[in-house]
Design a protein that fits this description.
alpha+beta, 36% helix, D-amino Acid Aminotransferase, Chain A, domain 1, Snurportin-1, globular, Snurportin1_C, 374 residues
Length: 374
Amino acid sequence: MHRELYKQNISSSERQELRRQKLLQEQRNRRLEQQDELRELPLLQRKESNGRSKYKKHNFQDLYGTEISLQFSEWMKEKPENLAEWFLVPCPKGQRCLVVSARGRTKMFSKNGRHRMSFKSILPGGGASVRSAGGFSILDCVYNEDMDAFYVLDVLWYGKQSFLDCEAQFRFFWLKSKFEELQEEEEYNTKNIENIKQFFLLESCDMCNDESIARALQCYPLWAENQPQLDGFLFYHKESSYTCGSTPLVCWLFPFMVNDVLQMSVSNQYEIPPNYSTPLFYMEEFDREMARKRQKWQSKKMDCSNDTDSLNSSICSNSQTNTGGMDYLKEELGERAEQQNTTEDMMMGGKQVDSLQHIMNAERLLELEGIAEL
């Protein structure tokens, strides 16, 4: 009964299917226009700077001079007219990120473009591959801290080749073939190289394949010993290009929503929230809660920024206690960071909501580095 009411609550103006068809046609036209064009690589060219900057460049755009960003899903509010046109990708819990490998280093950037960590990897140009020492890549990943590993969702660039305008079915095929090659390298299965991280390709299940879909939906836990834990399911339209930003061609459902939206059974071991009644109602409540938390986070961020500016002024005005001032600033910021235990962004609803504490600590570290250079 509630399933029929849920369907009736979706107005014609909100129909995702209409927006999908329009967007797919636009992408087809763009691919045709670009078919015969020679493509040069504008990415990974560091911006030239006249004079030394006081602060280090730590975000994606400053480092690489490009507007590339992550692709984000929408809620799957209604069942697509043809499920055979889709892939299902089980998504683990973790931090959504862009991973860039180039010049012998691999870097992780948050959904907001912030640099999070540098390490070595077996990706092209990542510093741990003999076969692919040159080149570079940009991957769409989920980083799971417990496993200290990256789980690959999608590819933007690989080996100096852009995949932004390629269809999802080709991108997934390419990734699968490349990761099979990577597994042949001895370094992939060892940790003899210092500061190396491992990458695992997430399985893309064709909705036409009943066996693989049943395994993905009904198997619990999906990964050995429930590590990592499943967060939800991403659905990719097979013909969709990689879209920087939100798109109806990539959709998201929590496990407990799948039966109501798609009429497909899932394992009953996935917990259902006590406040869950219908998918649409839960989606709306979830979005409101996330908006409230983002607003609260922005407010705290502004307060912390003002506090830091005040501390900076105090330190700079007292040149006789410069070293002690830096120590005091670090101690003060450390205490404040410990008080900010609110976690906002885990990979929920396909919308990356990073740890507030991690974000604030990283931003304060950058501020400290800037002060040290003055």
